[in-house]
Amino acid sequence: MSKLTEEIAKRRTFGIISHPDAGKTTLTEKLLLFGGAIQTAGAVKSNKISRHATSDFMEIEKQRGISVATSVMGFMYKNGGDPIKINLLDTPGHQDFAEDTYRTLTAVDSVVMVIDCVKGVEIQTEKLMEVCRMRNTPVIAFINKLDREGRDPYDLLEEIEAKLDIQVRPLSWPIGMGKSFKGVYSLYNKSLFLFQPSKQKLQDEGVQISDIHSPELDQYVGEGFAKQLREDEELITGVYPEFDMEGYLSGRIAPVFFGSAVKNFGVKEMLDTFVNIAPPPKSRETEEREVTPTEEKFTGFVFKIHANIDPRHRNRIAFVRICSGTFERNKPYYHTRLKKNFKFSSVTAFMAQDKEIIDEAFPGDIVGLYDTGNLKIGDTLTEGEEGTFKGIPSFSPEMFKEVINQDAMKTKQLDKGLSQLMDEGVAQLFSYELGSRKVVGTVGALQFEVIQHRLKNEYGASCTFQSLNLHKACWISSDDPKKLREFIDSKERHIAKDKDGKYVFMAETKAWLQMVQDTFPDIQFHFTSEF
Question: Who contacts 323 (Cβ-Cβ below 8 Å, separation ≥6)?
Fold first, then answer.
């Protein structure tokens, strides 16, 4: 086996997705705890606790207890065999940040989906599942919060199948729920784990019982629960087919685990099974061909940009997913959009905002490249080959507000802040040709708060947002440059430019847009800007 093949085999790159509040960030913390990446898990919601979740590193996330940036965390996990390198991407749960999440899903090979056992499948989970289905991403479901009185496990499984259009196969099963929760039986390893609720530190509290019919089981969980578990096991084995690895890897079957992230129940069983069954880095499509991870030459793409990851240094980091070959520090790589070579001397691996400089990285890894503005979301880096990786989605905004500068002395800081935050893909900026007005377009209302907060804290610029009555921002093009110019001149008041300098027509109502489209048949109106 070559070094490259060996490194690929021991990597697992996955994202955690869920509806807000299903316990996604808490689960992330527990996985890091098992990986030895942190010693104590931070409580995510409570303001009384001074520690915060490792993956929530932006100031506003700590204040509000929500995840708004996608965090990348890498750690080694020993599971009896050789250590496995896990690259974990924790996505924002809040639907206002859906775009960031969709882009992140392009960089992972599989997904863990967290479902709240009290609320079941929620709307945001359904949307995210659609994105996974577009790419046939393998999905593992973790049904969380079993320390609360939730819904019947069989009902939850049925709902997952109906709403998410995927078959399920339980690989662990809960004993009791809420106050009477006793533990989790692993149907995959045929062993029982009983736990004392331990929130923060790791303890080995699993009791392994190899035979579900042994009287030992009754001693641990009581006669009633033991009888119920035996019946459940028989029923599951009868109703659900054997776990089909091929079905899971092609995204048709979701293995299901039960547990409580906050009480540390059932998380380790899920992680151990995940490491065994989840796919190593997979092939990716470019517009020209399919790229396999084992190719000798390096390729990768930018799926996220984060400005001011360290407030003391005004820097931008581009997050790059490595798709093939070995990435080496200080080696020149070809930027396919700008058609020139770049060298990257500070290349970092992540542990939320803790970063370490690395010399090389392999397919499946996510590296951070310090950047002065050359890289954009969707950019491809290679060793000289032309081509662009496909499938980074981008949407036309739903809400529009005008930026009102509150401090004329800080105009420079405001402009710089807006430009850098827009490069992150948090929102889109449209600058009107006439009267130098600036308008921010977003998918949801919360982004305006985040932008305002970050402009103030990271750039020292104050602004407010004034609502605008706009229906859509449409990118415009035409086969006839003369007709395009005439259209721009005739609609000057409604023409803006996006951050890349492309012309955008700002339509105030649906009816008016329709009328303009009919009047100018030579002009094409686009609802997505191609990244």
Answer: 281, 284, 291, 293, 299, 300, 301, 363, 389
Q: How many CB atoms lie within 10 A of CB 512?
A: 12
**Length of the chain as a residue count:** 531
Phi first, then psi, for residue 286 (nearest 5°) are -105, 175
- For residues 274 and 189, the answer to whether their CB atoms sit within 8 Å is no
Question: How many CB atoms sit inside 10 A of residue 167's CB?
Answer: 16
Beta pairing, strands 284-285 & 191-194:
unpaired
> In angstroms, how far is CA 479 from the centroid of its own chain?
38
Residues 6+ apart with CB under 8 A from 215: none
Tally the C-alpha atoms within 13 A of residue 255's C-alpha that lie toward its C-beta.
Answer: 28
Q: Which residue has the tokens 């850098």?
A: 420
Instruction: Output the tens digit of pLDDT for each of the chain's 531 residues.
Output: 688 999 999 999 999 888 777 777 788 888 877 776 555 444 333 333 344 554 444 454 455 444 334 477 888 887 777 888 888 887 765 554 556 677 788 889 999 999 988 898 887 788 788 878 878 899 999 998 888 888 999 999 999 999 999 999 999 888 888 888 888 888 887 777 776 655 444 445 556 666 777 787 787 778 888 888 889 888 988 888 888 899 999 999 999 999 888 887 788 888 888 988 999 999 998 888 899 999 999 999 998 887 655 555 556 788 899 999 999 989 999 999 899 999 988 787 765 445 567 788 899 998 888 887 788 888 899 998 988 887 665 567 778 999 999 988 999 999 988 888 887 777 889 999 777 789 998 877 778 888 898 899 888 999 999 998 898 898 999 999 999 999 999 999 999 998 878 899 999 999 999 999 999 999 999 877 653
Question: Each residue of 69-100: b (16+ CB within 10 Å) or e?
Answer: bbbbbbbebeeeeeebbbbbbbbbbbbbbbbb
- pTM: predicted TM-score of the whole model, two decimal places: 0.75
CB 217 within 8 A of CB 192: yes
What are the Cα distances from residue 350, in Å, to 51, 355, 357, 366?
A: 19, 5, 9, 8
| Virtual torsion, Cα 270, 273, 275, 277, nearest 10 deg | -130
